[in-house]
Amino acid sequence: MQPVNRIFLIVLDSLGVGEAPDAADFGDAGSDTLASVCASACCAVPNLRKLGLFNIDGVSCRPAAAEPQGSFARLTESSKGKDTTIGHWELAGLLSPRPLPTYPHGFPPEVIQAFEKATGKKTLCNRPYSGTEVIRDYGEEQLRTGALIVYSSADSVFQIAAHESIVPVEELYGYCRAARALLRGEHGVGRVIARPFAGEWPFVRTPRRHDFSLEPPSETMLDRLKAAGLDVLAVGKIHDIFAGRGDTEHVFTAGNTEGIGKTLALTKRPFRGLCFVNLVDFDMLYGHRNDPDGYARALSEFDSALPALLGGLGEGDALMITADHGCDPATPSTDHSREYTPWLIAGPAARSGVNLGTLPTFADVSATVLDAFGLPPLAGTSRAAALFR
User: Do residues 146 and 251 both lie within one domain?
Assistant: First the structure.
């Protein structure tokens, strides 16, 4: 195997490729995010097809490529969860044998009372809610009273929404930090999320969302790469997901278009190590809002950028594309779905046409990345010998 110089690992947030074996345990039997998106007339993904997306085990929603230009696998989540934090942690070699806490009936009184005491603010809602619907239903009361809208979802999250004219964004971030300090141990949710909104009823969410994540409980791929003196560039919400730990440089983005643009720019920059990217719009704007056509247009936008992304790779570079969970936009649920995820590998350093089949854990991604840079795995099995030239 030749030395690897750079790996660009892009997470298409929520692009599942069919129900996992235990999907029914999560209420997700029949979910297939990719199939639902490909059913839309707005879905044009010729470049993903060339790389082997439709050659993956169990993927039959579009014709497979006769001679795929990439290698491919189907990944099984072994951690107990289907949320962003647990999915990314597993991709980075950290397995979660227990799910993070969720609050289908809202947060218990002791949590809300401690939060109100810490912030000096009253709260509204305290129920699971859609992010767009909660500001529609509680936004005017928030404007009138100054209380903070606190709500949960099917994910392990504590979300705080406030109008930017009443609670400036930095102040809202301060309230989120106070919540993060409180939510440990039994109530250690994966993320505290700032959800600022603006305008007049029915209001709109602004792009100044910020996630305050639970710190990973042990070493991750990012930590190991950084400790070895390699570059770890985080694009999008990767910095937040890992609580700011393990990256050497990070850039936030306002959505997929900016995330793709920032990644393209980084292909032109010399570094040695990992560029870890999250493209959040698939999940946030389309999966959760049951919008297959919007999801399809976003996937088509990414597909159209693939030639430039691959063209920006030099000798010793590789591109990896995967996902962290599903979020089928065609099912009645608006929540994440327990699904297999894709893993595509391409670029000058990678072999083409290798079918790794169905793999037992997302952690094989981290084991492969670490092995490519001569480092031992944290979890999973390295596939570097099969994938790299």
Answer: no
The answer to whether residue 34 sits within a structural domain is yes
Same domain, 373 and 228: yes
Determine which helix (DSSP H) or strand (DSSP E) holds 303, and give its type and residue range: helix 292-311
Looking at the structure of the chain, the number of domains it has is: 2
Q: 4-30: buried (b, 16+ CB within 10 Å) or exposed (e) per residue?
A: bbbbbbbbbbbbbbbbbeebeebebee
Q: Which domain holds residue 178?
A: 109-213
CB contact at 8 A, 286 and 332: no
* CATH number of the domain within which 48 lies: 3.40.720.10
Cα–Cα nearest to 38, from 256, 337, 340, 293: 293
Is the pLDDT score of 272 beyond 90? yes
Distance CA 5, CA 386 (A): 17
Interacting residues of 116 by C-beta distance below 8 A, sequence separation 6+:
122, 123
- Say if residues 182 and 192 touch (Cβ distance below 8 Å): no
* Phi, psi (deg, nearest 5) at residue 148: -95, 135
Query: What token pair was written down for 73?
Result: 């696998």
**Quick one: 201 and 123 in the same domain?**
yes
> pLDDT of 71-111, one tens digit each?
999 999 999 999 999 999 999 999 999 989 999 999 999 99
Residue type, 95: L
User: Is pLDDT above 90 for 279?
Assistant: yes
Give bridge partners of residue 12 from the DSSP assignment. Answer: 279
Interatomic CA distance for residues 227 and 369, integer angstroms: 15
Strand-strand pairing, 249-251 and 231-235:
parallel
> Residues 243-252: contacts with CB within 8 Å, 24+ apart?
243/212, 243/213, 243/214, 243/215, 243/216, 245/215, 245/216, 245/220, 246/92, 246/220, 246/221, 246/222, 247/222, 247/276, 248/273
- Whether residues 201 and 220 share a domain: the answer is no
Last residue of a domain, one of 191, 213, 235: 213
- 70 domain residue, yes or no: yes
The last residue of a domain, from among 182, 213, 244: 213
